Amino acid sequence: MANKGYVDAKNKKVNRIDYATHLQLMLWKFRKNRMALIAVGVLGIFLIISLFAEFIAPYEPGTRNINYLQGPPIKVHLLDDKGNFHFNPFIYEMVKKRDPVTFRVSYTTDTSKQIPLRFFTRGETYKFWGLFKLNFHLFGVDGGFINLFGTDQLGRDLFSRIMYATRISLSVGAIGVFFVFILGLIMGGIAGYLGGMADEFIMRLMEFIRSIPTLPLWLALAAALPREWSSLKVYLAITIILASVGWTNLGRRVRSKLISIREEDFILSARLAGCSDTRIIVHHMLPSFMSYIIVDLTISFPYIILAETALSFLGLGLREPIVSWGVLLYSAQNIHSLAQIPWLLITGLFVVVAVLAFNFMGDGLRDAADPFAK
């Protein structure tokens, strides 16, 4: 009879660890790390935002509300000004006022006008993933605008723009990690398995790339992009640039692992069986330390996201009409924006949360990759 992870084998109780695969051991240890599990949940929310940005965002990223320029975030209420509870959330109408002395525009809350918040409602028409037209949104209001994170200088809803920016920034990280994975495996595999002149050349290339200061290299490569390129070309070029610089860490790790196992008995057996070098690397050597490769890729994900954010913040990365976290922060880099529109910095909170989540998940995977370590 099985009892608390034990099975009866010939009247002897045997721990299930003795029969578990390496992947199962990793999963069991990973589940004990609470911070890593929380990070997975947070990244799951980011993934949902990325997949359904058009549905979650009440407006298109370029939609303007000319009556609410540089408007502060609008609060959602369940209690009215008289203390009465409402089951249906609502917002108050914002009234625009101008100071007669400074001519500065400000907004005040008109508590006499309640606008109910609608969920799963019809709204602005959009193209879901650019394929087909829909007008169904997670939430919205009947008449007027709802701006949970406020608006920017042009009256564009910051919440909607952040939802779309989350998709772009995370996709840059995902595509960048894919290229890092391919380059790291190919270059590290050649260096570690073949050795000799190939190893010398690839190692010197890695050292040359790592010796160049990262930020100036990014700036030089990004500045070389033609200004007349379309947004799509710039998007792909920036992704490839970040990957072309970030593959060296994975390449070194793959090389060191291959060197340590290329003389093992199971590799010798594969050679004697007539397996080609490519098959030995792909089917025998790489799977033996694939868990460590996954950990390295997870940790490199925030590295690429921060790189894209930094380039776009400096005006050399992605640019309008593409909306990314760095593009949104680019509009908040002057004193006027910080003083007049501080809610533009909400984008930075998303960057910090995403990077911390990837780091915590990477730490959990790194610990779980060696399940017998204390």
Tell me what the structure shows.
By secondary structure, the protein is of the alpha+beta class. Helices cover 53% and strands 16% of the residues. It is built from 14 helices and six strands. It has helices at residues 22-30, 34-51, 53-56, 158-194, 196-211, 214-223, 231-246, 248-261, 265-272, 277-285, 290-313, 325-330, 335-340, 346-368; strands at residues 6-9, 12-15, 77-79, 85-98, 105-128, 132-141. It has a four-stranded antiparallel sheet with strand order 3-4-5-6. The chain has a two-stranded antiparallel ribbon with strand order 1-2. Helix 2 packs across helix 14 and helix 4 crosses helix 7. It is elongated and about 85 Å long. Residues 1-13 have low confidence and may be disordered.
